């Protein structure tokens, strides 16, 4: 009795063992379930004081709109936000993961996160998975070195740009940017241009729709304008309103505030820059 | 008994011999054409590039031609098929003139003829690999239509082919309005062509703008658009972000 096979170390990455079987099944008419994509328009631009990111809010599952008002602008750090296009699960997971890594890094170094850090973490991860993590991202933020805007492609390549668009509506949005962008835009002009680009995607691309989300990041802080513009309101709403049957009745309310176990001492040595 | 399998496939169209007779892929192609209706007629713009695959082989291809007295045809796609279409239309106009009845084919009629030609070729699995834009004015009526290689045709206030569908159409939808002046129309077309120049890899910076009004057709001399590359982020992209690119 011989286990002649050498013990192979466990391989990381994706396993493609079932691909042949899937192909055979597809030929016989059994198709895999379609996954939720954010067929999207996401944009970013650098203006005078920082970065403005914009995104539409439609998430599609094949030909169906599965979420009319999803959030595509993800938090990475207090001064860095990231818009994601492609497979929704991939963009969520990858931005969440890098966001936690950035927070740990902030605790470790005691400094504000830099955009290049997020950029490098994201592109290393995506390259590692050779494009199978289908996340196309527009990363923007302001750190000590200034405002930055990057695009990251699913295979791991990045670009540093003054204005960027990604997603299925990227051409429609890019048409607006290429004809109207100039340097040194003021905040309101920047927001208007981003809104116009997203609207161009919403109305000219079938994979994008619903509302416009905006995030303005400056040195002072960030402003997340959720549903800044809603150009697709419900056409007919019931004038009677919507009434729902009575839910569980509340009989008694008692609130006990939690007591702090640990005393937090403010002050201590200031961190050196 | 020897039953020989038939070497001639039942469907002659898809047999090996007839393959060489059908258009399977385009070779020398022109990129987008953009057109819009304005106050006095139609304005159409196309660049002068003919690409051979990924090479920019020909840089002086006129992709817009006047047809008869009232129409202007712009084409994107296979250039040889465009030249064939011009021969068909030449014959059509010739026969129309031979009637010598004071009547002449207007843009709507030419568009209809082209639609029939394109759709019939598509049905025979031998398409003319083009997207055509047909514009014209007859008796004060402006007409602007499009036909493509599978026979899809429609009429609209502004049309674009190829990449223009994705890049120029959004701009036109937002900024076109009724009764544009000539200068505004040209400015709008140039805006679209500039975006196409930036973002379409097969575009060349040598374009012609054609105008058709009740008086007739004028195709401008070739000229190039001014482009802007002086963004500070282009000059020094990794400023402050050392290590990225």
From TrEMBL, chain A:
<comment type="similarity">
    <text>Belongs to the peptidase T1B family.</text>
</comment>
<comment type="function">
    <text>Component of the proteasome, a multicatalytic proteinase complex which is characterized by its ability to cleave peptides with Arg, Phe, Tyr, Leu, and Glu adjacent to the leaving group at neutral or slightly basic pH. The proteasome has an ATP-dependent proteolytic activity.</text>
</comment>
<keyword id="KW-0645">Protease</keyword>
<dbReference type="InterPro" id="IPR023333">
    <property type="entry name" value="Proteasome_suB-type"/>
</dbReference>
<dbReference type="GO" id="GO:0005737">
    <property type="term" value="C:cytoplasm"/>
</dbReference>
<dbReference type="InterPro" id="IPR001353">
    <property type="entry name" value="Proteasome_sua/b"/>
</dbReference>
<dbReference type="GO" id="GO:0051603">
    <property type="term" value="P:proteolysis involved in protein catabolic process"/>
</dbReference>
<dbReference type="GO" id="GO:0004298">
    <property type="term" value="F:threonine-type endopeptidase activity"/>
</dbReference>
<keyword id="KW-0888">Threonine protease</keyword>
<protein>
    <recommendedName>
        <fullName>Proteasome subunit beta</fullName>
    </recommendedName>
</protein>
<keyword id="KW-0539">Nucleus</keyword>
<keyword id="KW-0647">Proteasome</keyword>
<keyword id="KW-0378">Hydrolase</keyword>
<feature type="active site" description="Nucleophile">
    <location>
        <position position="40"/>
    </location>
</feature>
<dbReference type="Pfam" id="PF00227">
    <property type="entry name" value="Proteasome"/>
</dbReference>
<comment type="function">
    <text>The proteasome is a multicatalytic proteinase complex which is characterized by its ability to cleave peptides with Arg, Phe, Tyr, Leu, and Glu adjacent to the leaving group at neutral or slightly basic pH. The proteasome has an ATP-dependent proteolytic activity.</text>
</comment>
<comment type="subunit">
    <text>Component of the proteasome complex.</text>
</comment>
<comment type="subunit">
    <text>Component of the 20S core complex of the 26S proteasome. The 26S proteasome is composed of a core protease (CP), known as the 20S proteasome, capped at one or both ends by the 19S regulatory particle (RP/PA700). The 20S proteasome core is composed of 28 subunits that are arranged in four stacked rings, resulting in a barrel-shaped structure. The two end rings are each formed by seven alpha subunits, and the two central rings are each formed by seven beta subunits. The catalytic chamber with the active sites is on the inside of the barrel.</text>
</comment>
<dbReference type="GO" id="GO:0005634">
    <property type="term" value="C:nucleus"/>
</dbReference>
<dbReference type="GO" id="GO:0005839">
    <property type="term" value="C:proteasome core complex"/>
</dbReference>
<dbReference type="InterPro" id="IPR016050">
    <property type="entry name" value="Proteasome_bsu_CS"/>
</dbReference>
<keyword id="KW-0963">Cytoplasm</keyword>
Automatic annotation (TrEMBL), chain B:
<dbReference type="Pfam" id="PF00227">
    <property type="entry name" value="Proteasome"/>
</dbReference>
<dbReference type="InterPro" id="IPR050115">
    <property type="entry name" value="Proteasome_alpha"/>
</dbReference>
<comment type="subunit">
    <text>Component of the 20S core complex of the 26S proteasome. The 26S proteasome is composed of a core protease (CP), known as the 20S proteasome, capped at one or both ends by the 19S regulatory particle (RP/PA700). The 20S proteasome core is composed of 28 subunits that are arranged in four stacked rings, resulting in a barrel-shaped structure. The two end rings are each formed by seven alpha subunits, and the two central rings are each formed by seven beta subunits. The catalytic chamber with the active sites is on the inside of the barrel.</text>
</comment>
<dbReference type="InterPro" id="IPR016295">
    <property type="entry name" value="Proteasome_beta4"/>
</dbReference>
<dbReference type="InterPro" id="IPR001353">
    <property type="entry name" value="Proteasome_sua/b"/>
</dbReference>
<dbReference type="InterPro" id="IPR023333">
    <property type="entry name" value="Proteasome_suB-type"/>
</dbReference>
<dbReference type="InterPro" id="IPR029055">
    <property type="entry name" value="Ntn_hydrolases_N"/>
</dbReference>
<protein>
    <recommendedName>
        <fullName>Proteasome subunit beta</fullName>
    </recommendedName>
</protein>
<keyword id="KW-0647">Proteasome</keyword>
<dbReference type="InterPro" id="IPR016050">
    <property type="entry name" value="Proteasome_bsu_CS"/>
</dbReference>
<dbReference type="GO" id="GO:0051603">
    <property type="term" value="P:proteolysis involved in protein catabolic process"/>
</dbReference>
<keyword id="KW-0539">Nucleus</keyword>
<comment type="similarity">
    <text>Belongs to the peptidase T1B family.</text>
</comment>
<comment type="function">
    <text>Non-catalytic component of the proteasome.</text>
</comment>
<dbReference type="GO" id="GO:0019774">
    <property type="term" value="C:proteasome core complex, beta-subunit complex"/>
</dbReference>
<dbReference type="GO" id="GO:0005634">
    <property type="term" value="C:nucleus"/>
</dbReference>
<keyword id="KW-0963">Cytoplasm</keyword>
<dbReference type="GO" id="GO:0005737">
    <property type="term" value="C:cytoplasm"/>
</dbReference>
């Amino acid at each position: 009795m011989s286990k002649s096979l050498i013990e192979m170390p466990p391989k990381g990455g994706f396993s493609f063992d079932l691909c042949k079987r899937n192909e055979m099944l597809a030929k016989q008419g059994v198709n895999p379930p379609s996954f939720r994509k954010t067929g999207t328009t996401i944009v970013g631009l650098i203006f005078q004081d920082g970065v403005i990111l914009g995104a539409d809010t439609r998430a599609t599952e094949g030909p169906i709109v599965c979420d009319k008002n999803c959030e595509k602008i993800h938090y990475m750090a207090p001064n860095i936000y990231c818009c994601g296009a492609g497979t929704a699960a991939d963009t969520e997971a990858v931005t969440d993961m890098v966001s936690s890594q950035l927070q740990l890094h902030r605790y470790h170094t005691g400094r504000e996160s830099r955009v290049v850090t997020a950029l490098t973490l994201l592109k290393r991860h995506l390259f590692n998975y050779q494009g199978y993590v289908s996340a196309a991202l527009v990363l923007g933020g302001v750190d000590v070195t200034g405002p930055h805007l990057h695009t990251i492609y699913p295979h791991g390549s990045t670009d540093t740009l003054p204005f960027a668009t990604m997603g299925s509506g990227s051409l429609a949005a890019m048409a607006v940017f290429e004809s109207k962008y100039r340097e040194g835009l003021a905040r309101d002009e920047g927001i208007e241009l981003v809104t116009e680009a997203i609207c161009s995607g919403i109305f000219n691309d079938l994979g994008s729709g619903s509302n416009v989300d905006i995030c303005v990041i400056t040195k002072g802080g960030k402003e997340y304008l959720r549903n800044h513009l809603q150009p697709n309101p419900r056409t007919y709403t019931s004038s009677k309103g919507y009434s729902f049957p009575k839910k569980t009745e509340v009989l008694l309310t008692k609130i006990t505030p939690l007591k702090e176990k640990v005393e937090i001492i403010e002050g201590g040595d200031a961190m050196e820059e | 008994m020897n039953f020989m399998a038939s070497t001639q496939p039942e469907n002659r169209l898809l047999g090996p011999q007839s393959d060489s007779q059908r258009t399977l892929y385009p070779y020398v192609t022109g990129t987008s054409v953009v057109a819009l209706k304005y106050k006095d007629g139609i304005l159409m713009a196309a660049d002068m590039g003919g690409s051979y695959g990924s090479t920019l082989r020909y840089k002086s291809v006129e992709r817009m031609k006047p047809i008869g007295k009232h129409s202007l045809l712009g084409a994107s796609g296979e250039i040889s098929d465009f030249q064939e279409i011009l021969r068909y239309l030449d014959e059509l106009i010739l026969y129309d003139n031979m009637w010598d009845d004071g009547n002449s084919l207007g843009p709507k009629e030419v568009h209809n003829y082209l639609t029939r030609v394109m759709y019939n070729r598509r049905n025979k699995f031998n398409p003319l690999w083009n997207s055509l834009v047909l514009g014209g004015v007859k008796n004060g009526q402006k007409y602007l239509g499009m036909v493509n290689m599978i026979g899809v045709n429609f009429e609209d206030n502004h049309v674009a082919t190829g990449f223009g569908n994705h890049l120029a159409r959004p701009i036109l939808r937002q900024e076109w309005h009724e009764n544009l002046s000539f200068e505004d129309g040209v400015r709008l077309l140039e805006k679209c062509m500039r975006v196409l120049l930036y973002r379409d890899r097969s575009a060349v910076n040598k374009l012609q703008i054609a105008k058709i009004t009740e008086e007739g057709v004028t195709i401008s001399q070739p000229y190039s658009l001014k482009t802007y590359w002086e963004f500070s982020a282009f000059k020094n992209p990794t400023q402050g972000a050392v290590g990225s690119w």
